[in-house]
Amino acid sequence: MNLRVAICQINSKIGDFEYNMKKILEFIEKAREYNADLIVFPELALTGYLIEDLALRPSFVKESIKTLKKISEYVNNEVIIIGFVNEKNGFIYNSAGILYKGEIIGTIEKFHLPNYLTFDEKRIFKEGSEYKILNISGYRVGVVICQDIWHPDGPLRKYSIYGIDLGIVINGSPYHVSKQEEREHLIISRNIDNLIPIVYVNLVGGEDDLVFDGRSFVVNDGKVISRAKAFEEDLMIIDIPKSYSLKSKIHQNRLNEHKLDVEIKEIFINKELKNNFQFLGFVNGNLSFEEEVYKAILTGLRDYVLKSGFNKVIVGISGGIDSALTTVLCVDAFGNDNVIGVWMSSKYNKLESYEDAKILSRNLKIEFLEFNIDKIFDSYILELKKSFKNYSEDKTEENLQSRIRGNILMSLSNKFNALVISTGNKSEYAVGYATLYGDMVGAYAPLKDVYKTWIYRIAKWRNEKNNVIPQRIFKKRPSAELRENQYDEDEIGSYEILDEIIRMVVEDDLSKEEILKFVNDESYLNKVLEMIRKNEFKRKQSPIGPKITKRAFYRDRRYPNTNVFL
After folding, report:
1. Can you spell out the DSSP letters for 200-257?
2. Looking at residues 143-158, what average pLDDT do you find?
3. 316 with 361: CB under 8 angstroms?
4. All domains in the chain, ordered by first residue
5. The Cα angle at residue 179 between residues 177 and 180, in degrees rounded to 5
6. Which residues are catalytic?
7. CA atoms of 60 and 42, how far apart (whole Å)
8. Model confidence pLDDT, tens digit, residues 491-536
């Protein structure tokens, strides 16, 4: 007996039920061309994953249920699994709807609700309590939802003891570097422990600051036998014979030693299954570090802008590596006709910075607007002269230049109905090396969770495709060019060392004493720790950007602005 499974890796829009229904129906039609028996969509595919308090609005929940019923009317002789928001007895659930022959024949609720880092599901959903499996003409399928699979004694374990032939996990699993390796390692271990093949179905696309990388996959016999594309929608068809699980159970009968301690209900589906064994699966290869991160950033940027209803963007180009990579990302995401580069010179800008910005824009074939801010700056200084008469020049004058540039960018944004894309990186945001209401302006910051040292690596990788970033940009010392002879690393230290300290503080939660085992300069470490601490208020007001590392600012690390603890 064989079950032909269609894995539908789709990019949903938050709250756009009509769009999501259309997308789901398109994939169902495609799956029908392959005579799929079971068509599976990701967690909360019908609503979008990052719904937050939308789930607390009764009208939103009603629309979710109503739309699922509409979809069920199109379902024929295939079994469909779709993630949606459900309501039962006044409680809201993260559920999987089971559709067959024009009806919703059952629902399966998520048991384990994550409440850490990015996740806040306990705030909006109630935990499931009923154990249910599908019985498709004797082929038993256990369906669990995302976090459920991370618990070794969770529902999949119980279903395996009961005697299922296949495990299905529907997911809205956000990306971070190395996340796919974590997933595949976990699912392989569950496959070995439970003696069943497992299908892992994931969302793809950007939702605010989260990126879903897709890469749905199937595991059997301790290895990945099929893997979908990364950062793209995909339809993956695979035949999974009942013999996969039967063979494992014959040779290893350890599940017989366990007693079932819960009641499990079966949702019976009378459907003819064939013995065709045609689609064995296809394993898409893994990406390099640089390509993976680039595609993650690109996906987040593209979807944030387009899903927000815009298609044109503006980037302030300084002649440095951050704005260069940001501009290239924008062109790759929206095309050169939809990207405006803006050069805003002052008396402190070097000629080579202008030349590099101009060459970059010419290479990318984008519109390039030029402004000089000196007269605007002088008018501010003249107006403030009386108030500043007892004070010497300091950061105030430097930040003023940045804020003038921010005003120009936002004025262009208003006039052209285009979003400003900010160019700041994780290293700068961590220590506050950015100007609030200045270079921090913008709707989205694609490099917000990317270390400065990573930016060079990623930009070099992108330049290998076509050499659009001038080579001089890679060689010059980073500088904000807000005064004579100003260089980043003279003020915040070597990026190589700084990035390591930030990683240990933000991602690994190491104490000062633990970090001193790796960093010899205690006074510099104290300076960095203090900068990270006191600039929380800046980060809270910065544009959102895609989560790339395992712990990003914003959702993953929630600190009070007025904290004094280092």
Report:
1. EEE-EEEETTEEEEB--EEEETTEEEEE--BSS-EEEEEEEETHHHHHHHHH--GGGG
2. 97
3. no
4. 2-269 (3.60.110.10), 289-488 (3.40.50.620)
5. 115
6. 43, 110, 146
7. 19
8. 999 999 999 999 999 999 999 999 999 999 999 999 999 999 999 9
